[in-house]
Amino acid sequence: MQSLIYKVFTRKYSLSLQADALELLSTVIAQNELSTVDATKWLELLADTWTKREAGPLVEAGPLKDLVAAVSAGTSSVSSRGADSASDVFTVISAFDVPPLWYDPSTKTFTHPFTKAEILSSAEAKASLFRQRYDLIKQRVLRNENFTPVMFSDHNRFRTLSTIDSLQGREGERFLLLGMLAQLEEGKLFLEDRAGSIELDVTNVGKRAHGLFTESSFVLVDGCVEDGVFRVDEIGLPPPETRDVTRNAFPNTNLFGGSPSLRTEVQLREIEVATDNGMVILSDVWLDQPSTMRALRVLFDGFSHSAPPIAFIFIGDFSSRPFVAGSGDTTQYRDNMTALGQLISEFPDISRSSHFVFVPGANDPWGSGALPKPRIAEYFTKRLESRLSHVTFTTNPCRIKYCAHEIVVFREDLLKRIRRNCVLEPEEGTDVAKHLVRTIIDQGHLCPLPQRIRPVYWAYDHAMRVYPVPDVLVLADRFDAYSVNYEKCHCVNPGEFSSGEFSFFMYYPVSRTSQYSKIPKS
Fold it and tell me: What is the pLDDT of residues 71-87, one digit of tens each?
């Protein structure tokens, strides 16, 4: 039986067992007279739960004994606890609380680059920002099946990445390069990697993959060098990677953030099934418009006649015009938030049971214009927060962990910004929303634009990552509402609530589907 324990813990989950921990598992299996099949399932549940709790690669007897007791309790504790009774069921993670982990290509692990991330960070953070994006994408590309030949296979079927410095004196040969698009000279497009840069000629690109190509985005280009210029025949975005592949590559690394759940995977799944009431996602909810308040009353009244939703995710802007500090907007904005709290409190079941998450937009106070944007100041929200049982005002972007679900929420007019700054025209006749979703996930970043176009705090660039790929990606944009599935990620844009048709999305975690809805105008 010890060989089975080693097979599950060490070979499959890369965990090292101390001798007393191995003896503990053997004793429990023998006492319960578990068959090989049952023992395997039980051991896999233990190892999977240990990994998700990020307890480390070394399994000691003390913590393992507590885990065995928790897992042995099975799912019986789920029914005895309410789905909302523990903070590990629904957690909102601020962008400033995302673990500051950067990939180190020399050790092939994630490390902490700073003792403490700060908004006013050092020049080192700025210099490392794009190098870190490059390293993270490159390790992902090299793990792709098209770049990883296996023993006894035809190596000619696989591609090899070259660096720019290796092109010298090799004109006419074909190369595949990975690098960042940049305009180092006016009117000229270059490709940069860690080794150098080279001018690109994209006038004769014959094949272009789906996606939107902007400065500061990372691409794969195939072609050859002529007269010191790289003539591009094909260009495309780096291949994506599913969350399962990423998790297997870094099994004991928490890149998403938040504390590990105290419940097992089975218990969390049972909670999802038992409370699949959906999440309501709304964007551009202008509280200074009477029509918006009337529509919200209709919305809450409709949900009051059924089981309350898991959560209401309110995404800014929460005002129809930009906030001006030191003007009458300060009092008006606070009163608008107070009025929303009063409205929600008229529906007791919703105000007590549902979670409320508020993500600021560009017109909301405060912020310097760089990302991530801080939460709305407590001065404006204190009265609203006092009326609700579960409410969180958070940053833009933010992350939400619900049971086994990972959700990323970002408010930005992203499609317009990226489309305006494209260096290559996208293919005609294709769905631009699908182009956007593919670009964000393939780049592994929420805002793959130059710093001069959309600045990001250097030391918090890691909070803008989309890696691993989340279960749900909310890209709130003033573009037509859409829902797109890509690489096992469900991406939605709820559209504008107040200036449109009072539209919103309902997302259902169990089926991993969403439903577009709108409130009829009276």
Answer: 665 433 433 333 344 46
Nearest by Cα to 362 from 416, 413, 418: 413
- What is the distance between the alpha carbons of residues 103 and 253, in angstroms, rounded to a whole number? 11
Q: How far apart are CA 235 and CA 206, in angstroms?
A: 9
pLDDT digits (tens, 9 = 90+) for 337-375: 999 999 999 999 999 999 999 999 999 998 778 999 999
Rounded distance, CA 394 to CA 374, Å? 7
Contacts of 68 (CB under 8 A, 6+ apart): 24, 25, 28, 46
Rounded distance, CA 275 to CA 5, Å?
A: 35
61-72 and 19-31 helices, crossing angle to 10°? 30
> Rounded to whole angstroms, how far apart are CA atoms 119 and 371?
10
Longest Cα–Cα distance of the chain, Å, equals 75
Phi, psi (rounded to 5 degrees) for 210: -65, 150
- Rounded to whole angstroms, how far apart are CA atoms 98 and 113? 14
- Coil vs helix vs strand at 106: coil
Residue 208: how many other CB atoms lie within 10 Å: 17
Please report where in the chains the tokens 């319960």 appear, as a residue: 32
pTM, 2 dp: 0.85
Rg, C-alpha atoms of the chain: 25
Exposure letters 355-381 (e unless 16+ CB within 10 A, then b): bbbbbbbebbbebeeebbbbbbbeebb
User: Which residue is listed with tokens 């025209």?
Assistant: 425
Per mean pLDDT, which of 108-122, 322-336, 381-395 is the most reliable? 381-395
On whether the CB atoms of residues 136 and 467 are closer than 8 A, the answer is: yes
What distance in Å separates the CA atoms of residue 378 and residue 391, rounded to the nearest whole number?
12
Per-residue model confidence as pLDDT tens digits over 50-59:
876 666 788 8
